[in-house]
């Protein structure tokens, strides 16, 4: 087995698989109110193609973790079957999902039974009115129900991912942490990144990691977690001497590119070696024209070898990717 190594010595073992670019929310920092032009069905990988490429990644390239993303992965009708087939490929691969949790109450048990290990849920507020303001949908109660269902189905530890927006929910960090602590969810704050479809991201208005930690420290005692961070994106802090922790993913102000172990596969079969990459490598065409698993693996290794040392957000020449987050996958 030859791993997915780049010219800077990093090895990718964590595969993020976008199953669709469609989403049933319209979060203000992600897409416009009217939504986007969705990917044509014939361009999207079939369930069998998704499973085959994951199999190549696991068997030929040393991938040990697979996370299903979107868009919103729960809108992919074949999701449960995809999970089941990947589990049949490898009993040990760690499988998780990043979801907005709409519909998770209906699917959590089936996903757990199929072999999913864990759920990450995107939730930026625990106030229903603020939720409506951010997502443009009145679905807060459904997310709460989905979180509870994930916990009950054993998809834990359940993690909550939150983005703070200046003037919207930037005063709610302690409130959100208290809510998660009460329910046993692991909260991770994520700095807003330049991945919106509108290309309206402005660093000067972004709520930084320092601001997040300052807000939390006004209510809780925070201390650095003892365990090493490794390749994990979140910097962890013990809350009130533990054992509970809160994480901050400071992709912009405290980049962790040097320890990155992630690679992404889009819903239309393109390899992205970085979340902010301006180029992609096409596996779908090779897949559909008879390429062997060995050939697909070789193409994937070539795609990873060219990964840049960092995302370059601080570089004056930085350009936001053409694809928005909903079409890349988290």
Comma- or semicolon-separated keywords:
330 residues; two-stranded antiparallel sheet; globular; 12-stranded mixed beta sheet; alpha/beta; TIM Barrel; 14 strands
Folded structure, characterized:
By secondary structure, the chain is of the alpha/beta class. It has one domain (4-328): Alpha-Beta Barrel (TIM Barrel), CATH 3.20.20.70. It contains ten helices and 14 strands. Strands 9-10-11-8-7-6-5-4-3-12-13-14 form a twelve-stranded mixed sheet. A two-stranded antiparallel ribbon has the order 1-2. A hairpin with a 5-residue loop joins strand 10 and strand 11. It is globular, with a radius of gyration of 19 Å. The two termini are 26 Å apart. The relative contact order is 0.16. The mean pLDDT is 92.
Please sum up the structure shown.
30% of the residues lie in helices and 17% in strands. It is α/β, with parallel strands linked by helices.
What layout of secondary structure does this protein have?
Layout (H helix, E strand, L loop, with lengths): L3 E2 L5 E2 L1 E5 L28 H15 L3 E5 L9 H11 L4 E6 L4 H11 L3 E5 L5 H8 L4 H13 L6 E4 L10 H11 L2 E5 L18 H9 L4 E3 L10 E5 L5 E5 L12 E4 L4 E3 L8 E2 L1 H5 L4 H13 L19 H4 L2
Parallel strand pairs: 3-4, 3-12, 4-5, 5-6, 6-7, 7-8, 8-11
Antiparallel strand pairs: 1-2, 9-10, 10-11, 12-13, 13-14
Helix pairs in contact: 1-2, 1-9, 2-3, 3-5
């Amino acid at each position: 087995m030859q791993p997915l190594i780049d010219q800077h010595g990093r090895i990718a073992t964590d595969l993020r698989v976008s199953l669709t670019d469609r989403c049933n929310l319209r979060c203000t920092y992600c897409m416009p109110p009217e939504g986007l032009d969705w990917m044509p069905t014939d361009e999207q990988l079939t369930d069998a193609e998704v499973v085959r490429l994951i199999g190549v990644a696991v068997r030929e390239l040393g991938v040990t973790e697979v996370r299903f993303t979107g868009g919103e992965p729960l809108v992919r009708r074949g999701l449960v079957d995809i999970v089941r087939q990947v589990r049949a490929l490898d009993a040990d691969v760690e499988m998780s999902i990043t979801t907005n949790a709409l519909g998770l109450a209906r699917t959590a048990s089936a996903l757990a039974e199929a072999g999913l290990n864990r759920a990450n849920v995107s939730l930026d507020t625990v106030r229903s009115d603020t939720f409506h303001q951010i997502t443009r949908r009145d679905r807060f109660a459904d997310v709460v129900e989905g979180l509870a269902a994930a916990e009950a189905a054993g998809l834990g530890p359940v993690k909550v991912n939150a983005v703070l927006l200046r003037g919207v929910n930037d005063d709610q960090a302690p409130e959100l942490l208290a809510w998660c602590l009460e329910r046993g969810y692991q909260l991770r704050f994520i700095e807003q990144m330049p991945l919106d479809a509108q290309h309206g991201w402005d660093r000067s208005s972004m709520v930084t990691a320092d601001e997040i930690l300052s807000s939390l420290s006004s209510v809780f005692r925070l201390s650095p977690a003892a365990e090493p961070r490794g390749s994990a994106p979140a910097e962890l802090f013990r809350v009130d001497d533990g054992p509970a922790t809160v994480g901050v993913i400071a992709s912009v102000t405290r980049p962790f590119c040097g320890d990155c172990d992630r690679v992404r596969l889009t819903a239309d079969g393109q390899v992205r070696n970085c979340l902010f990459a301006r180029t992609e490598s096409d596996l779908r065409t090779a897949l559909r024209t008879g390429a062997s698993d060995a050939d697909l693996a070789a193409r994937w290794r070539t795609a990873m070898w060219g990964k840049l040392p960092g995302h370059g957000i601080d570089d004056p020449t930085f350009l936001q990717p053409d694809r928005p987050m909903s079409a890349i996958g988290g």
